[in-house]
Design a protein that fits this description.
- This protein has 12 helices and 2 strands, in the order H-H-H-H-H-H-H-H-E-E-H-H-H-H.
- The chain has 243 residues and is mainly alpha-helical.
- It has a two-stranded antiparallel sheet with strand order 1-2.
- Helix 1 packs across helix 2 and helix 9 runs antiparallel to helix 10.
- It is elongated and about 65 Å long.
């Protein structure tokens, strides 16, 4: 299935490359186009996340109030969901739909000979440098010319970790007040994931072809911009909060 999706995506990247004539900029344009194509799904997911963040403090109150009666707690939560026209699974479906597409996109950038250029000689003879990177087919530390005191600086890895952290902070749900004397384990888990995931993605970025790292960073920046406008309170919501 992934090959079936990856082939037309590879054709799209090749079409962009034939028009632009630069592999690095082609990846950036390709990233933007694919993000725009996935925008309806991402908007649906962002709206669900925003709704969940708005309802989360009240949900936490219900969970705390009926924590010793699971059946009652679930009943009250279902009533609360119905009253607010919210489906807890609504944020999962968009993510599941786009997962095969996202994996296929990684395949395309990871193996451009197979999916884009279809010929190793053609790929070998194109220019693969961009800005401080000498070869987008190699990991950044093997292809960077940006050095401080003789040591290479992994700019893409730093950007990957930084943008991932910022994106996760943007969608972090506000937590209600924890019961006195008891730690808020959900908030602790959320904070731990927010701190660990950026480091993990930064490490991954160091070990993949820098073209793939470029795709990830460009895509994350696009998502941050999208989430900024989507998560931004509407004028009517801002007025309600003031009251």
């Amino acid at each position: 299935m992934l090959n079936f999706i990856a082939k037309p995506l590879g054709m799209l990247l090749k079409l962009i490359f034939d028009f632009v004539g630069d592999y690095g900029y082609s990846i950036i344009i390709f990233t933007i186009i694919t993000k725009v194509l996935l925008l309806p799904i991402n908007i649906k997911q962002t709206e669900s996340t925003k709704k969940m963040n708005e309802l989360n403090p009240k949900m936490k109150e219900i969970q705390e109030k009926y924590k010793n009666d699971k059946e009652k707690m679930n009943q009250k939560l279902m009533e609360f969901y119905r009253e607010n026209n919210y489906n807890p699974a609504s944020g999962c479906l968009p993510a599941l739909i786009q997962m095969p597409i996202l994996f296929a996109l990684f395949y395309v950038i990871q193996d451009p000979v197979k999916y884009v250029f279809l010929d190793a000689d053609i790929y070998a003879n194109i220019s693969k440098n961009l800005w401080w990177l000498t070869d987008l087919g190699k990991p950044e530390m093997s292809a960077t010319v940006f050095r401080v005191a003789g040591f290479g600086v992994p700019i893409l890895a730093i950007l990957s970790a930084g943008t991932t952290y910022f994106q996760m902070k943007m969608v972090s749900a506000p937590r209600g007040k924890a019961e006195k004397g008891k730690p808020d384990t959900a908030a602790q888990t959320q904070n731990m994931m927010t701190n660990i995931m950026p480091i993990m993605f930064g490490g991954i970025t160091l070990n993949v072809p820098s073209g793939l790292a470029l795709y990830w960073v460009a895509g994350t920046i696009f998502t941050i911009i999208q989430q900024y406008f989507m998560m931004k309170p509407k004028p009517q919501d801002a007025k309600k909060e003031e009251k």
